[in-house]
RNA sequence: UGGGGCGUCGUCAAGUGGCUAAGACACAGGAUUUUGAUUCCUGCAUUCGGAGGUUCGAGUCCUCCCGCCCCAGCCA
């Protein structure tokens, strides 16, 4: 899968270094929790883990960390698998679930109890918080900390047997309530949860905590490099403690910074909030930074992978510019997308010297970047539509599109000249009457005169209608994730994140459109899997074209 | 007056004591262009959070200081 040489990073360098002194198979894993959908931040991790395995001819597992039945669902398991596949990665038969290890984990817990390294605690959650101490003060031992091994064994078996209620008891590790690292202050290993698990059903009523599961799962799977994000850095001593006490295989954990993207949020909790409060349609709303949203929007997986390669891997908490993602999308689509003509906001143009019933088939190039893409025919007639923005009655200096008395080229067709502007009683421009120059068929002038402006157009009688959805950033704030800047998510939502054009005029070749296109001069668009309310096709704008005119016009 | 991390261009990010501190995105100019797209040139850190020190030589080593992030779920 390694297309070109991907830039190196500190983790890859480390592995290369290790490989110099010993020989082993690199074995990584991507460990999502099936409690929500994957987003672009997960893509970074997926590309890292699968990419490294690929780079070193190793193995990468897909493992679901499903230790909390109250939040996890099979539908998420399915969606996650679909997303990983779509991104372009294949776990082969390396599909695992932490829940596969519940028996083993239970046995690990028994082992710790027998070593006197774990105990059943009766403290309530509130009491436990008080006993934990604070960041600057040590905690104090639970009064139940010194129960006998026999009593602990008995109590833990009874927890498993369902003899206690939720919250009544937990199993804790016996480490050090005075540690500066709060994770070492006798962390909870097992809690009682009388919930049905999406895979193990009602077999269990006690479930291991993530901290007691993750490291051992990596160990069981013989993961060589456990890559995770920065916030787990101070969990590492705890994982090391478990592995050492249990005397089992010890993977190497390496932390890297999670992805932050400006103008977007990448927190599962907040994305869920957007869905639940109906600020977006669903997890796959094209404005969402989820992989399903990006897929629906029309982002090519290749572009996302390229983006992940380009942002690099480091330990500094950084925010990547959204423009880089858009750049990667444009770069890929520029090479691959078929060019078509679509008019979003139509302005009628009648060519007064063009024969009434004549229709010409003009040759249009499908993709100037790809000589093999060929050409297609586009019908041209007396009445066409152009973009309203492409005409100005009183244009500024640098405007070189259509204006009264000015000439402009209709792409692949003729040079036309604006002779008359027709307005309605409200003074709105409703139609342009133009002449065309028959000597300029397909757009080339015979006398060598330069025509600066070239416009896209669609013939009235041949136009096909569809709904087009234009998307902008979901947030107006550059850093909506920062709660100091944005205490209330809703207030920084962009009211213009979605603009619907109900009736855009498309060239007829788009009647059976599939996949992604470049709408000439407008941007890249992709067919939505759903139909509009009126049964029309829907096109989603993936990303605009770079627009220097907009920059000039804004000055 | 706890513990763990991080600070190199507007944004990411190479750099692991020795040529003038990579590259990408962004930005600004210019050329080409039947997409104001693409492509192509050009410019864009005398300086690496700050101050000392070690060294012939420091972004890279040492000391101190400053700033930012994470941790007090029976979440992951």
What is the structure about, briefly put?
By secondary structure, the chain is an alpha/beta fold. It has 13 helices and 27 strands. The chain folds into 3 domains: about 10-260, HUPs (Rossmann fold); about 270-340 and about 465-555, Beta Barrel (Ribosomal Protein L25, Chain P); about 340-465, Ribosomal Protein L25, Chain P (Beta Barrel), CATH 2.40.240.10.
The major beta sheet can be summarized as: 7 strands, mixed
SS content category: alpha/beta
Stretches where pLDDT is under 50 for at least 5 consecutive residues are none
The CATH topology label of the largest domain is Rossmann fold
CATH architect. name of the largest domain: 3-Layer(aba) Sandwich
- For this structure, what is the CATH class of the largest domain? Alpha Beta
The number of domains: 3
Could you give me the name of the CATH homologous superfamily of the largest domain? HUPs
Number of strands: 27
In terms of DSSP E residues, the strand content is: 15-25%
Would you write up a description of this structure?
- The chain is of the alpha/beta class.
- It folds into 3 domains: about 250 residues, 3-Layer(aba) Sandwich (Rossmann fold), CATH 3.40.50.620; about 160 residues, Ribosomal Protein L25, Chain P (Beta Barrel), CATH 2.40.240.10; about 120 residues, Beta Barrel (Ribosomal Protein L25, Chain P), CATH 2.40.240.
- Helix content is about 25%, strand content about 25%.
- The chain has 13 helices and 27 strands.
- The protein has a 7-stranded mixed β-sheet, covered by helices on one side. Strands 21-18-19-20-14-17-22 form a 7-stranded mixed β-sheet, with no helix packed on it. Strands 4-5-6-7 form a 4-stranded antiparallel β-sheet.
- Helix 2 packs across helix 11.
- The radius of gyration is 31 Å and the shape is elongated.
- The model has no long low-confidence stretch (mean pLDDT about 95).
- The protein binds one RNA strand of 76 nucleotides through helix 5, strand 6, helix 7, strand 11 and helix 12.
